Amino acid sequence: MTASFTALPIEPQPDTTTCGPTCLHALYRHYGREMALAQIIDEIQRLDHGGTLDVFLANHALARGFSAIVYTYNLKVFDPTWFVGRKTDLAAKLRAQARAKRRPKLQVATDGYLSYLAGGGEIRYADLNRALLRRLLSNGEPVLTGLSATYLYRSAREWGPDDIDDDVRGEPVGHFVLLAGYDRATREVLVADPMHDNPQGSQNYRVHVDRVIGAILLGALTYDANLLVLRPCAN
Predict the structure, then answer these.
(1) Given this structure, which CATH class describes domain 18-232?
(2) What are the sequence ranges of the domains in the chain?
């Protein structure tokens, strides 16, 4: 068991679309950076339909003296060949892709990632496996992740403006949580979840690492599928 396998305090998210800012608030507080949750929610860029993207959370942290590394598995935005061999100009690739694909959500995500790269953020592509999660969680630093809530919770897909459970008409739903520790003996990850009434019955719970990995990868269906590592800079 890692030394970091302790409950991570996290506030309940105020509504169904503020899981990302609520996770960021908990992470800031973990590092001793006090900031009102309402202020973070107000400052984070939002998507037209509600919710946010990992890169918008990262940009908020970059502007406040944090370093940021995104491990991406979102093939809707990043091509695997961009990370093979010699160093690729990711900004140039993102701009070229945005010109070729005029999808509104891709345009918004591209703008966010261009700002992220310009602000000093790093993007990595690595196999998502137990070894990577163990390494990232070994020093007690929480990792913010965007994943599939539908897969994580084993819950029904959701439909309509009120996000009602509907196993026929419903669509998969994305979510942000914090990974707060890894128990090597049981192969479980400690999850800090901003959703107060989640199916696990607690805001801090254990999930087998294989389910966590599956949930992260399936987050690509909702423009999630990432690990966001934020650390306060020394200065």
Answers:
(1) alpha beta
(2) 18-232
